[in-house]
Amino acid sequence: MAAALTFDKGDDDNVVSEINTTPLVDVMLVLLIIFLITIPVVTNTIDVKLPNETNHVRETKPENITLSVDSSGAIFWGLEPVADANALTARLKEISQKDPQPEVEIRGDTNARYESIGRVIVACQRAGIVKIGFVTEPAARGA
């Protein structure tokens, strides 16, 4: 940016400075035009058919394992709290040796962070669990 200095004709000691904003306005208009041109290109995506929501009847078997993650990120095996992801992996490794292998059902609180549920999924993968399901509430009718 350029600054123009003008001197008051009546007194040589007074200096009045003004900032020339014309180059700033020019740059901002160019940036605005660039953003307006590039935004439609960014929002276009490959046309794919996304899956629709489906509800399956949940068959709870006694051998299935229910893991719950509350809003604070604590993990529960049924009603019993699990110390951490390593303890969960160790318990799941014992269960994964059974034949047939039980299904793991994960119940995540709506306010739980994705990271907390992700730790449970990683523990299941490390233990060799083949079938993992997520338990959700059915959608409200008419919504």
TrEMBL record:
Single GO term (MF): transmembrane transporter activity
Keywords on record: Cell membrane, Membrane, Protein transport, Transmembrane, Transmembrane helix, Transport
GO cellular component, one term: plasma membrane
One family name in Pfam for this protein: ExbD
Ranges that cross the membrane: 27-46
Location in the cell: Cell membrane
GO BP, one annotated term: protein transport
Highest taxon above the source species: Bacteria
Principal location: membrane
InterPro entries in the record: ExbD
Membrane topology: Single-pass membrane protein; Single-pass type II membrane protein
Family: Belongs to the ExbD/TolR family.
Record's protein name: Biopolymer transporter ExbD
Organism of origin: Oxalicibacterium flavum
